[in-house]
Amino acid sequence: MSSASHHKKDTTTTTTTNGSGEPSHEPHQHQASCTTHRPEDEWKHRAPYRVHDDAAASSSFPVKWRGQCHCGRVQYQLRRERPLAAKYCHCTTCQRLHGAPFQWAAIFEKDDIHFTHGHHDLGWYDPTEKSQTHHLPCKVQCAFCRTPIMDEGRNMILLFPTLIEGINTPEARKAFEAKCHMFYPQRVVDFNGDGVSKFAGLEGESDMLDDDGNVIKKKKRVQEEKKEKKDKDKDKEKEKEKADKHGD
Ligand SMILES: [Zn+2]
Ligand SMILES: [Zn+2]
Question: Which portions of the sequence form the region Disordered (predicted)?
Fold first, then answer.
């Protein structure tokens, strides 16, 4: 079933007669609906699809960026100035699903985004099961114009920055600068001399490559360095905590 038909059912109400003989408008209990609160629909009311109420939103959700799909039915706001990271993915799945030479994705927390119409007008595709159910991780699109919006993972979202207002400004280019190329051997375009690290697969979990795709660091060393960096960051954090305590 397509999500578009889901959406239609969401607003369907039937007129039934209650005990007093007066008609009451109740949605079908067995259908997907905003108002029936079936446990399997709970995700529609959680981040990233939870709709913020206006008063709370203005203080807790300072809008840094706005984005929308091609037809404008899907609109969102972002409260984080820069993504946690931005990456290019050259895998063949991304090439096919985006109809583009590669995917440009910016990682955000699910709480960083606010879809102004919640889950409405969105469609889902689970590339693993090849199904349209909301099963994580999945692709998220506008259900009407089919603009790809983001990949929704279990904890994070990978947002496609080309939908963002002002993304072609120097500030936005800097904020959303990609820090690596992933699945570089599957590429259909070369990136020679761009100074951005290249990986055979996922960043930090596969061989590191040069611009021509030759291995320059084996996966094992890449993973060791990743762990060393993590440990160092942890130590730094501990030291900072200590310093903060002394400051009291
Ligand atoms: Zn659209
Ligand atoms: Zn990919």
Answer: 1-40, 203-248
Contact 71, 117 (CB under 8 A): no
186 C-alpha vs ligand 1 centroid, how far in Å? 29
Query: For residues 182 and 187, what is the distance between their CA atoms, to the nearest angstrom?
Result: 9
Selection from 158, 36, 136 nearest residue 87 by Cα: 158
78-91 burial string, b = 16+ CB within 10 Å, else e?
A: bbbebbebbbbbbb
Query: What average pLDDT values come out for the chain (248 residues) when binned by 10 residues?
Result: 41 41 46 63 91 73 96 97 98 96 98 95 95 94 98 97 98 97 98 97 96 96 93 91 75
**Ligand 1 centroid distance, CA of 17 (Å):** 38
Instruction: Please tell me the number of Cα atoms within 13 Å of 182 on its side-chain side.
Output: 21
CATH 2.170.150.70 fits 42-240, yes or no: yes
